[in-house]
Every structure is written in structure tokens, then in C-alpha cells.
Amino acid sequence: MSAVPGKKLRIALIGPAHPLRGGIADFNEALARSLAQEGHSVSVFSFYLQYPGLLFPGKTQLAEGPPPAGLDIDASLSSINPISWWNTSRKIDAIMPDLVIIRYWLPFMAPSLGTVARNLRKKGIPVLAITDNVLPHEKRFGDTALTRYFVRSCDGFITMSRAVLHDLSQFTDTVNKLFLPHPVYDIFGDAIDKSEARSRLGLPAEERWILFFGFIRKYKGLDILLEALADQRMKSANVKLLVAGEFYEDEKVYHDQIERLGLQDRVRLDSSFISKEKIKDYFCAADIIVQPYRTATQSGITQIAYHFGRPMLVTDVGGLSEIVDDQQSGYVVPVDPSAIAAALADFYEAGRESKMSASVRAASSRFSWKTFVQSLVKFYEQVR
Predict the structure, then answer these.
(1) CATH number listed for the domain at residues 194-366
(2) Rg of the chain's alpha carbons, rounded to an integer?
(3) C-alpha distances in angstroms, 375 versus 44, 128, 281?
(4) What dihedral do alpha carbons 153, 154, 160, 166 form, nearest 10°?
(5) β-sheet bridge partners, residue 366
(6) 5-36 pLDDT, tens per residue?
(7) Does 10-183+368-383 carry CATH code 3.40.50.300?
(8) I need a surface site. Which of 140, 199, 336, 359 has the fewest CB within 10 A?
(9) In sequence order, what DSSP letters do the residues of 106-120 get, joined into one string?
């Protein structure tokens, strides 16, 4: 039976949200608001315990500040407490949703999220999953079995990269899957002038600064970018690197690399979690945003760059090349320090910032939240 076209839906969204911090929580809150703006009723069911302390590599899982206004968030779920899985299932069933949307990004979450999904499907409630990753960046024993358990718990899937859409074929032959590009993040305020942003961060206005943003793990390739920065072309151009994000692994490795390469005067490490209020300072202060990833699916970093009109350099992995138009909104290069250095040298020598920034702003309309939400609801109508 199909849903009535144009019907306003009651939706339960399951995934991280305030007071949890990070890109997935930011996305879920933005998605809930966008669904509400289209007239749908949204209740968010988040975690009161997302990761046990021993398994969390960062300093804290919690954000500072008050909860976001206008959102109904119930932190009822624990990743490791089965009682909470059943309690959350009952709470969701009680609001009689037309649709449940589950955010899936890590096999560790499969038992909790998969069990809730199965409980709700038994009640006849359709469950769609937004799958950030199906195959994790950092593989562990049991990942395949856990992901299979979750995937078999859902009616349909939305992916934000074609790479993940392909990965799903290893776990299901369903036709109920859809690629929707990650929308532009518009929750971090309006862009400010580069000179003002640099003044706020204490950066000289006239220097050349590239930005590596986000938490730091091996697969994100900061070490590759440091090797590129040591390239003679980068030395000659006096390009400097601003790293903004919390280390999720041993930072001594990177400090040692910086010293070995003689980059102490050309790298600034702001190695803490960057609050929402400060994000625009970092993006607007940079000439170009660099993502030298070894592996990737989609990335919220590119969509923050689109919002602030910043050119991007990404490596040709996962779905990154689907979002960045090579030689237009930025560069798509191999996972290689020399290739990264060559592209950045071209960026500065040819003076491409202004033209690429204009291309980024022109292309950003392709990734609107309105388009994402309307496509999601249309997909639900097909699956239902």
C-alpha cells in the first residue's frame, strides 16, 4: 500500500543528537529541522550512552551549550544495554510513526539499531536507513556479521555516496536503495571576510593557509598532507597548514613527523574539538580545504566548504570525486603527496582561488536540504 502523496508524516529519527557532539549529530539535527520545515512531525531518539568510555578515542562525547531549539530529542538509547533497545522500541511504537529513519555508520551500533528496527518492523512500521558506511574505514573482526544483521533489519537504504550504494550489494539484493548526495551544511552561520576570520584566529592576513579540518585518524591522511607540505614546491610558495580537529590516535606520531620534515614554522595544530560557533572562522580563514583521505565514503567537510564558498582538494577515493568538480570547484587527485603538492602549487601559481570559489558557490544549490528531504519522502512512498 502506498502512502498518500503530499501526506504529512509522523517520523521517528534514530541516531546521535544533542548533547552528543560531532558531524553525525549535526546532520541529524539539520535533517530533523528540514523535515519539520516541510510540514512533517519529527521526534529524535538519541543515545544516553553512545560509546563506552574505554572505546571512545576523543576527550569527551558531549557538546557544550543548551539543546537546539525546536527539536524533540529523547536520549533513551544505549549501544550496550539491551533493556534500552526494547524501551526505545516501545517509546517509538507509542507515537505511531508513519516512518522510522535510522542513521547507521559503524558496525558497533548494529546490535542496538538493528534490534530496534526489527522490533518496529514487527509492528508494521517501515524502516529506512541512512547508511554513512557499510564497510568501515578501520576494519575489525565481526564487522561483516554485524553489518549483515543491521542491513537485514531495514526496508530500504539511502546512501550519500555511490561507493556505499555499491557496498550494500554485498549484504542485500534489494532494489529499495537510493543515492542522495550529502546536503550542504548551513547550520554554522554565514560566511565572513577572510581577513576577519584570520584576525579571530590570530593568523597573518597576507599568508597562504590551507586547512585540514576534522578529527584525526590514519585513514584521513594528515601524514600524507604533511609530506606534501614538505615538497619543494610548497616550500617555495611558503604554503602553511592549519590543522583544526581533535586527535583520535597518538598525536606524537604527527609531532615527530612535523619535526622530521622541518615544518615547525609552517604548521599550526589546533588539536581540540572545534565548536559549531568557531567552524566558520576556520573555513573562512583558509584559501582551500584539503582532504587527503586514504579511504572515504561521503564527507560533511566538503559540504561545509560548499556553504562557505571555499575551494577543495580531495583525493580520488570513495564518493569525494562525486561532489568536487575537478578543475572547477577544486581538485581531485591521487592519494599521493606529490600529486597533492602539484595541485596546490597550481592553485597558488595560477591564482585560481577567486574563480574556484565562484564555482563552489554556483554548484552549492545542487545539494539543498529541501531536495534531500523531498527525495527521501518520495523514496519512502515507493518503499511503503
Answers:
(1) 3.40.50.2000
(2) 21
(3) 20, 13, 32
(4) 70
(5) none
(6) 568 999 999 999 988 878 899 899 999 999 99
(7) no
(8) 140
(9) -GGGHHHHHHHHHHH
